[in-house]
Amino acid sequence: MNECMKSIRVRSSVNKGITRRQLLRGAACTIAGVVVSKLPDSSAAPGQSVELADETLAFIRRCVRADGGYDPSPDLAYEGNSDTKLSDLAAVTYAAILAKTMGWQLPHPERSIDFIQRRQQSDGSFIHLIGKMDSKSDAALLYNTVQGVVALRALGERPRIDPSKTLYRFFVGDTFKKLPWYTTSFFPLFYAALDKPFPQQYDEALRAHQVRNQTEDGYLGDHVASAFHMAHYFRLVGQPTPKAKQMVARVLRDQKPDGGWNIKEPSWDVHACFDAVFILRPSQRKSC
Fold this sequence. Notes:
There is one protein chain. This protein folds into two domains: 1-200, no CATH class; 214-288, no CATH class. Helix content is 44%, strand content 0%. Helix 4 (88-102) packs parallel to helix 6 and helix 9 (224-236) packs across helix 11. The chain starts with 19 loop residues before the first helix and ends with a helix. The protein is built from eleven helices and no strands. It has helices at residues 20-25, 50-63, 83-86, 88-102, 109-117, 138-154, 186-194, 200-213, 224-236, 244-254, 269-284. The chain has 288 residues and is mostly helical. It is globular and about 50 Å long.
């Protein structure tokens, strides 16, 4: 499954954080993320192949497990790559997002809801039970908690315990600065999926951190995936992406002759292509 999907947003008229209206205005279904309303059926969407959509749904259904989780592939010998290798919350989240986006019905969604709910801890955070990620690390806590919230949102449910306080730890002593660049858009996505205000102090800290480290070509970390998460972050909070023109120019320069994009070696073309196209599409609508 593609390792990247993501979007929505939020606030209240009383709170000084980012508003629900602002957050929802530029939302798009994209990994780490969720969509809040159904997109047009593939049969009605220009340029989309019904056959491809049917094949994708059939693949997802072959990955479903009896406990409501999803395997990275019908081939049980394949342990996954990127997110699906790191956490067993990844595949079920992406299945839920794709189904919500396309208007598909997943097999036994109630089992998937229970699968996710069972991974919530008493403090509101979520954990993975299978995966290569260090379950006690900050990156795992953030990733699993955001994925759990997003997956439940896509499945029409909410966490049994409010996980809002879970993210506080990342803004004590600037812990968020030690996280990988791909986590930046997780924060507004988390609050969006909960329909809660994105705290202004978190937004200001994360924006400054990204802008301070952005290079003249618009990228973060010399990496299309990191640049994607920056573009995704600013789209989620309803603000123009800094150095958007430079970022787009770099993306276009980096396209390979076969139409794909490299991230870094080894090449993950599907992942990189998604990231690149997301960056390019909002820019064409002048929303990036």
